[in-house]
Amino acid sequence: MPVIDVSKLRKSYGERRVLEEVTFSVEPGEIFGIVGPNGAGKTTTVESIAGIRFPDDGTIRVLGLDPRRDRAALRLRLGVQLQSGELPDRMRVGEALSLYASFYPDPADPEQLLAEFGLDGHRRTFFGKLSGGLKQRVSIALALIGNPEVAILDELTTGLDPHARRETWRMVERIRDRGVTVLLVTHYMDEAERLCDRIAVINDGRVAALDTPAGIRARGGPDASLEDAYVTLTTNGSL
Ligand SMILES: Nc1ncnc2c1ncn2[C@@H]1O[C@H](COP(=O)(O)OP(=O)(O)OP(=O)(O)O)[C@@H](O)[C@H]1O
Q1: What is the ipTM of this complex?
Q2: Local structure of 145: helix, strand or coil
Q3: Which of 13, 93, 176, 204 is deepest in the core (most CB within 10 A)?
C-alpha cells in the first residue's frame, strides 16, 4: 500500500486554478521529489498532504489517514520541516528540540538527534545566531523529533552554500536510512538526481511526468541532463 496517495487534487485561489488534477503515490521508504516552476502548486500540494491546506476536490491518504478528517492522528506520524522563519530567533537549539519533543507521546531523544545532526556544540546557541546550514539541520532534526513515518521537506537547501547543501543531502539520506518515507520539494535538479528515487514534475496544475531521475533524463534525448529534460518538459508540457 502506498504511504501517500494523492488522487485528482484540485485547488483554486479565487479565480485562479492552481491545481488542475494532481495524482501520484509514494511507496514506503522512497525519497519522492516534487519539482516544478515557481507557482506550479508544489507547496499547495505538500501542505494539503500535511493537512495544513484544504484542496477543493480530490482525495489524499497518508498512512491510510485523511489529512483533513484525521489531522490529529496524522500529526503524530508525519514530520514537517519548518521554514526557518518559523522558529523564534531567541530560542536556544536545545530548548527547541525539548519543547517539540514534549508535543509527542513517543518522541526521539533530543540528545541523540543533537549528536546525530552535529548540533551538540550548539545546544545553547540562539536559533537566530545560527548559519543557514545549521538552521536547516535544526529544522530537519525538528521534523524528526516525533519519530515520524513520513517526512515532508520543502525547499530545504534554498539559499545554502555548496558545502551546506551537500551536508543537508547527507542528512536527508540518513532520514531515509531510518526507514522514513520522504517527500521532498526542490528546485534543484542535481539535488533531485542525487536524492530522489522518483520525481513528479508538476506543471500547469498537472503531473507532467512521473519517473525515476534517469527515466526523466532519458526522455530529454541521448545527451540531455535532468535539468535539460526538466526545462523542455516544463516549457512544452510533454516530451
Ligand atoms: N493563500 C493563497 N492565496 C492566494 N494565492 C495563493 C495562496 N497560496 C498560494 N497562492 C498562489 O498559488 C500559486 C501556487 O503557489 P504554491 O506556493 O503552491 O506554488 P509553488 O509551486 O510551491 O511555488 P514556488 O516554487 O514559488 O515556491 C502561486 O501563484 C501562489 O501565488
Answers
A1: 0.96
A2: coil
A3: 93
- For residue 72, what is the enclosing H or E element? helix 71-75
Instruction: List, in sequence order, every residue forming a beta bridge with 93; answer none if it has no partner.
Output: none
What's the predicted TM-score (pTM) here? 0.92
β pairing state of 4-13 and 57-62: antiparallel
Position 181 scores a pLDDT of 97
Q: Which portions of the chain are predicted below pLDDT 70?
A: 82-85, 236-239
Alpha-carbon distance 228 to 43, whole Å? 23
Quick one: which atom of ligand 1 is closest to the CA of 40?
21
- Domain residue spans in the chain? 1-77+150-239, 82-147
pLDDT at 222 (0 to 100)? 87
- H-helix or E-strand containing 37? none
Domain boundaries 1-77+150-239, corresponding CATH code: 3.40.50.300
Question: Do the beta carbons of residue 217 and residue 229 sit within 8 Å?
Answer: yes
> Ligand 1, atom 13: nearest CA belongs to which residue?
39
Tens digits of residue pLDDT in 141-171 = 999 999 999 999 998 888 888 988 898 899 8
**Grid cell at residue 224:** 540531455
Ligand 1, CB cutoff 6 Å, lining residues = 13, 18, 36, 38-44
